From TrEMBL:
Signal peptide: none annotated. Pfam families: choice_anch_I (PF22494). This is Choice-of-anchor I family protein. PANTHER family: MESENCHYME-SPECIFIC CELL SURFACE GLYCOPROTEIN.
Length: 629
């Protein structure tokens, strides 16, 4: 043992002995000292793992009930399309494309909406902008939105291929300002923070496809106020960088559908609808005919990406459809077709810190035509087909049964699963009536007639069949582009169960199975609402009518809640219209849906407001929270 260690042991022993020797009674407890100064804050610890999802103490759901409507008295004239609401004035703003105005309804008594005024858009815009010669230079209003007492309206030019406008009003109807947008502004919306207004400029070609303006997105900075907005506050986002030879040409995937006839990508892309993230940092734009979505960074108003949406396989379980209007039955079954999603309306919400998009997968083909007296006049005008006054210049759809008449053939690997041969498959009661996307799934054509007429020709061979729309709504992860939910064949199954013989009726006459060969019920309008701690989606079915409600709180496991349809299928619509009073028809052709939260509702009960373009009615529903037990 070293000296040092021996010394330490001895010293320790002496200390212990001393303490033992001093083990007398404890003294009195002293007074508590003052609390010392707080020490510096330590570093933040590592975040713990997420806990398990809680369970509702009282399970609840919603129940929708019709309470009233406003009737414009105009049938099939687009007299009630897009709707918006201002809580302070308790007014609903309704796009009336027939009059070219926006109708203002007082809904202080929601069951009895009353027309109080209309916004004279053409007169106001012409008076404000020297570049507009007169009100006659303006066409129809296409969209309306309201935020913080400000009303924004998208208005097309009378020449639809020219640039349109965005007009701003106070909710009391006072005109504030107007700015120029792109060609055919089809939808307008505010960012949630109220600092920007966005318009989707569709840029459609004219009837003979001789003029095709570029599609674009207009962004208006209104952060300094609307009354002083000028062209210096406007940014037009275009797609020229994605043209052949452009700096971003290689970013455009093959699943972004581009027409063979288009002069450029920028001219072919057609913005339809816009959704904005809750933090106002990102916008998503539906390109319906292109079957794609655009992501826009609103920090610098730039395009982040264009995402093709792909297709839905109707040959697999859960994706069945009724494909014929000539089978005298409801026949929802699998067929060898692929449905392009092609959404019309879209909306956005968050779950678990992730952005999700919901899409109403309506589908839309391209059909461009002019009027002609006869076939020779049509041919002289450059048309390729004449049909009862209509001169077709471009058509990208064809019925399956007509494909072989063009000299094209169909060769499907899985044909034997559905029919013994193509002739059987192409019978009217089977798949023959379905409208196929003419320029997809095809190769080997002797001549490129897709670039002129849109139709196939000799030598074309179809190895896959694509059709328009998916007859459903979908939920997408907005950050990855992944499809996380699709309602499959729900819409047709549910409407078949509820409506029976009126299943897949069209929206301007009663009689079932009319739209099975087209796009079925055609989901068009969509709206998201937060109610009772849950997130709900409301989807309007444009053709058969009615509103579908789904609980989408958990995006990957959305579930059906309710279907409500206020249409009367028992009446003869044509007779009622001819008689001048078609009130008994109910509501036809839902074009838009607006949710009003209970705290903003005049009655204190949450509401849905629906614009119906065919019946020209604005319908109002209560949305009540009820027990799910």
């Amino acid at each position: 043992m070293t000296f040092d260690s021996t010394f330490k042991q001895l010293t320790l022993a002496a200390l212990i002995s001393s303490l033992v020797a001093c083990s007398g009674d404890d003294g009195a407890k002293g007074e508590k000292g003052d609390t010392g100064a707080q020490g510096p804050q330590g570093e933040q610890g590592v975040a713990g793992s997420n806990g398990e999802n809680g369970v509702d103490a009282t399970p609840n759901t919603i129940a929708i009930k019709f309470i009233g409507r406003y009737e414009s008295g105009e049938f099939d004239e687009s007299a009630a399309e897009i709707v918006a609401y201002d809580a302070a004035t308790e007014q609903v703003f309704v796009v009336n494309a027939n009059s070219g105005m926006v109708d203002v309804l007082d809904i202080s008594e929601p069951s009895l909406p009353v027309l109080v005024s209309s916004l004279d858009l053409g007169t106001d815009i012409a008076a404000a902008l020297g570049s507009v010669a007169s009100a006659d230079a303006l066409g129809a209003a296409n969209s309306v939105a309201v935020k913080n007492g400000v009303v924004a309206v998208a208005v097309e030019a009378s020449n639809k291929q020219a640039n349109g406008y965005i007009a701003f009003y106070q909710a009391d109807g006072t005109f504030l300002s107007a700015v120029e947008a792109g060609a055919l502004p089809d939808m307008v919306t505010f960012s949630p923070d109220g600092n920007k207004v966005l318009a989707a400029n569709e840029g459609e070609p004219n009837g003979d496809y001789s003029i095709d303006p570029e599609g674009s997105v207009t962004v208006v900075d209104i952060s300094a106020g609307v009354a002083s907005v000028t062209s210096t506050n406007v940014t037009h986002i275009t797609f020229t960088d994605f043209n052949v030879g452009g700096s971003r040409e290689n970013e455009l995937g093959n699943d972004v559908r581009i027409s063979s006839k288009s002069a450029s990508v920028a001219q072919d892309l057609e913005p339809e609808y816009i959704a904005v993230s809750a933090d106002s940092q990102t916008a998503w734009v539906a390109l319906q005919e292109n079957n794609a979505l655009v992501e826009i960074d609103l920090a610098d108003n730039s395009i982040s990406a264009i995402l093709g949406l792909g297709y839905k396989n109707h040959a697999i379980l859960g994706n069945e459809l009724d494909a014929s209007n000539k089978d005298d039955s409801i026949n929802i079954t699998n067929w060898p077709v692929r449905g392009l999603f092609m959404p019309d309306s879209i909306d956005a919400y968050q779950f678990g810190g992730v952005n999700y998009l919901i899409t109403a997968n309506e589908g839309d083909g391209r059909e461009y035509l002019t009027n002609a007296a006869d076939e020779s006049a049509c041919t002289a005008a450059g048309g390729f087909d004449f049909d009862d006054g209509d001169c077709f210049h471009y058509l990208d759809e064809i019925r399956l049964k007509d494909i072989e008449d063009t000299g094209a053939t169909v060769n499907l690997d899985d044909l034997a699963r559905f029919a013994p041969d193509f002739d059987t498959l192409a019978e009217d009661e089977n798949l023959g009536r379905i409208k196929i996307v003419a320029n997809m799934g095809v190769s080997g054509c002797d001549t490129d007639t897709f670039a002129t007429t849109g139709q196939p020709s000799t030598g074309c061979e179809y190895e896959a069949l694509y059709t328009y729309g998916a007859r459903s709504f979908s939920i997408w992860n907005a950050e990855t582009g992944d499809l996380v939910f699709d309602s499959g064949s729900d819409f047709e199954r549910i409407t078949a169960q509820r409506l029976g013989d009126e299943f897949n009726a069209t929206n301007d006459e009663n009689g079932g199975d009319d739209r099975s060969d087209d796009k079925g019920p055609e989901p068009e309008a969509i709206e998201i609402a937060q109610i009772g701690g849950k997130t709900y989606a409301f989807i309007g079915l444009e053709r058969v009518g009615g509103i579908m409600a789904y609980d989408i709180t958990h995006p990957e496991s959305a579930r059906f809640v309710q279907y409500i349809n206020t249409r009367d299928f028992s009446v003869d619509i044509e007779d009622l219209v001819d008689g001048g009073d078609f009130s008994a028809v109910g509501d036809l052709g839902p074009e838009s849906i607006l949710f009003i939260a209970a705290e903003d509702s005049p009655s204190g009960v949450a509401l849905l407001v629906v614009g119906n373009e065919v019946s020209g009615t604005t319908a109002i529903f209560e949305v009540n929270l009820v027990s799910a037990n």
